Amino acid sequence: MAYELLTPDTCALALIDHQPQMAFGVQSIDRQMLKNNVVALAKSAKVFKVPTTITTVETEGFSGHAYPELLAVFRRKMRVGHLHVDAIQGIPGERLDGS
Question: Looking at the domain assignment, is residue 82 inside a domain?
Answer without folding.
Answer: no
